[in-house]
């Protein structure tokens, strides 16, 4: 079972007992409104089903619980098709997401030959777009996606991060 550690966080595979905290964190409308494909309201049984179906973590596709030691589950980060993430509202603005994403991207690019990672966010989700820009993601286009929580189509900014661009940052090297 792959775990990734950062100075403040543990990124670990999901466990069945994560479902209640997962459902509470992601189910809050202030979080759910930004997660286009997320059904809302989000229930405990949805969380249980989602976590049970999580892929076995490997550099090509993964789902990690973001665990703050002493606090427990504070969010989730995944690479299933595109990079996706969320942080529970009480933990916004503390840099946890950037820290988790750096660890995941280092691990991903070191263990996989993929040339790029894509990500996206609603056009008005400034915090998510700032995190993506900070990581080196660049806008590739825009598209409309249906938001389950908002119940209408919303413009999305699609971004991409090239492997070469990531490895060039701060002298990172692939193993």
Automatic annotation (TrEMBL):
Keywords: Acyltransferase, Transferase
Pfam families, alphabetized: Acetyltransf_3
Domain N-acetyltransferase: 9-155
Superkingdom of source: Bacteria
Alphabetized SUPFAM superfamilies for the sequence: Acyl-CoA N-acyltransferases (Nat)
An example molecular function term from Gene Ontology annotations: acyltransferase activity, transferring groups other than amino-acyl groups
Similarity remark: Belongs to the acetyltransferase family. RimJ subfamily.
PANTHER family: [RIBOSOMAL PROTEIN US5]-ALANINE N-ACETYLTRANSFERASE (PTHR43792:SF8), GNAT FAMILY, PUTATIVE (AFU_ORTHOLOGUE AFUA_3G00765)-RELATED-RELATED (PTHR43792)
Name of the protein in question: N-acetyltransferase domain-containing protein
Protein species of origin: Devosia elaeis
